[in-house]
Design goal:
Radius of gyration: 15 Å
CATH class: Alpha Beta
CATH superfamily: Aconitase, domain 4
Number of domains: 1
Order of helices and strands: EHHHEHEHEEEEHH
Distance between the termini: 25 Å
Number of helices: 7
Strand content: 15-25%
CATH topology: Aconitase, domain 4
Low-confidence stretches: none
Length: about 160
Amino acid sequence: MANPIVGRVWKFGDDINTDAIIPGKYLRTRDMQIFGTHAMEGIDPEFTKKAKPGDIIVAGTNFGCGSSREQAPLALKHSGIACIVAKSFARIFFRNAINIGLPLMEADVECQEGDEIKVDLFKGEVLVPEKGIFKGNKLPDFLLDILNDGGLVAHRKKVKGEHK
């Protein structure tokens, strides 16, 4: 995992649910590219045509609410989103994102869509040029380890290999 993560901002509001992140009609596939090309389609059907790899989502409260579908963070990851910063996350979305290696941070950040920001997960900070540094909730070391290893499965394989 790169740190800090630098990218262009896409802004979303409160209560962005998993049905908006990846509509249910795409859930029968296992093709990650299909998930990636339909990310955020429930809010902005053109999102994946505009978003670029390395971009960052900044959102309000309760991001990822709704169903517990793991496909929601997978869709964002495979669309090229590098990180999500939100005031708060639905807990199951938060853990699903960590499990698949999608970095996120809880922070209340003042920025505009299109701004380039820098997210430092190790410090728990978001730098918005000309607006300053916004403190967020630093992830515990064990979650940072999972993200650094690329997700929970890769992390468990690494840990298991270290204990042989």
